[in-house]
User: What shape does this take?
Amino acid sequence: LSSFIQLYNSNPITATSVLAASYPPVVGTRTFVGVEATNMTNAIPLQIGMPMASTIDNTFDYMDYGVRANSANVTVYNNFFKNIKNPNSNKTFDRCAVYAMQKSGPCRLKVGGYNANELNLFDECTIGVYAYSYHADVIKNTFANIYKTGIDMEMGMLNRTINIDGNNMSHTYCGIKCMDIGGCNSTNIKNNYIDVVTGLGNGPTIAYYGIYVGNTNIAPTNFTITNNIIEKAKTGIWVERAERVSVGNNTVDFSGFSNGTLLYGIRMTNSDNCTVNYNTVSKSGALPTSGMVNLLRGIALENSAVNYVYANTLFHMGTGIYATGHCNTAKLACNILDHCWNGFHFSAADIDNQLASGMNTGNQWTGTVGTNGDITGTLNTITNWYFAMPAPSANLAPNISLNPASSTNPCDGTPVGLTATQERELTIGKIVRNENVYDTLSAQFKLRDSIFAYHKLKMDTTWLSLNAGDDEIYQSFYNYTKNSNIGKFEQIKGLLIDSTMFDTLNVEITNQNIKTRCTMEENQQIVNNIYFHKIRMEGNDTTMDYHYEYDSTEIATLENVAYQDPIMGGDGVYQARVMLFIDVIDDELTKSLINYSGTVNKFPDFKLYPNPNNGNMQLSYTLKENETGNVSIYNLLGERINSYNLVKEGTTLDIIETGLINGIYFYHVYINDKSMYSGKVVISK
Assistant: This one.
């Protein structure tokens, strides 16, 4: 059958809009859709199921989609969805119990509710609930044996509200995923129980997370993740490329995982101005060993600035709190580090001074297991850290200054008594005065500093005029940076966030006209081009359920950026990872695979040189027996310029493209018709 019931346009049901008859499952043939509703934007939603019934109203069995809403207001109560699955599929969407896609005006989807007998049951489904650009409430449902994701929200940076509350998930490959929610005015993920397991189908490459939040384009949002319990997840809660997210009062339990698996309790990646407080991350059983230092991380900050990590309890962790990269003005206070191998561990991190001068950070170390100390690793800038006696033990590179506190911190919130002038100084003062000194990668860290400080001033322009004596310094920095490439890329980001001003063609032209100066900017421009193409293709499509899939060239180009070191490659690295939805553990990257330009060389048998060049270049290569190959040159739009066959008897190929204008191009090496290597080449005459 194609579908049991298909509804189109407005008001096809009577005023009560109730569809509650119990349809039997189809066994002999596979149904495409159980109930499909299209263009039903009337105020009264289509209701599927009766909320107060004593037994399950509808059973959706052995279908591609149970309920499918295309720009329709739908409420789903008291239904049973089962066997809506294709566990061996690698497609983004292949079998979804409740699917909602909106392209014309905001619609609302409600699945489950707070009253008795409103919940839905999901069993043996590929995806439980998916919604694109909907106001969505998913409340008190039960999910079991989910092959990909229990609840999957994608908002397209539009102003929507999301409430995911009180759901129970067991034997689920991945729990809750929210993508591109930067434009949402309110998102709450709370009171959910998530038990994540391995071994279910071909799930996403970010495997076994409890809750994942990721944005292609960073934008401030009102987002809270609270009171969730997550068990048996490789990553409990992961926030990537988000801003102003509150992660509080969650419990992540790693009991059952063996040594050798990289685990994160709470992971903040490329996410600024967030709060992580009152969470508990634990692992029962034996004490941690030295091998768990880089494998069992309670809370991790990765290139995430101005995060306040406060009053968390980390129990039996290899590293209680971990930080790497540009974590400017991160504040780590009042945390309890109970029987961890290392309390804090830093990897070339910039965390800046801790709290106000002389204020006790209030962290407590209980029974530190490791011999290296309570605070270990390397800091990239001088950091003042104040403590109450007795002093924590430390084994760090010389950039930390441990000092007895002159005042106590009651651990009852963020530091009090800071005026706006003091907060501005504490957050970006040293940046605008160019006072930060870095031991390694100074140019990259300073560029990140400037991007961060300009964004802070742009988001809160009151900081430009605080009637302070040094206002002029901040104003001069802002005006200069506004006209630089930093300001131009920030302008593009603002246009993407504000849908009322968004013009794909205008944004693409603005992006193309930026004359990049370094790998960070080149990556940002490249990733932007592919993202804008996706937006344009989806915007031009008239079908209700169209999802743009990146082609092989775009995937290879994004992978080339995604596998770079984010310190050298910039925010475009994280953006490419979100677009591909892949997980890259940067400290597991083999640094020898990254050449001088930051490009990943996964296959050392291929190398194009010189780079940059004037159009005359050579590719060194090695072909094995029974292999054929070719190399293709592409422009930034992904258009193929030329292709050259690799001669089996040779090891060097001459490539002559003197007609190319100056700019960035890509080359892709194909072996036996499969893309095996991609790289970036710069033409400069």
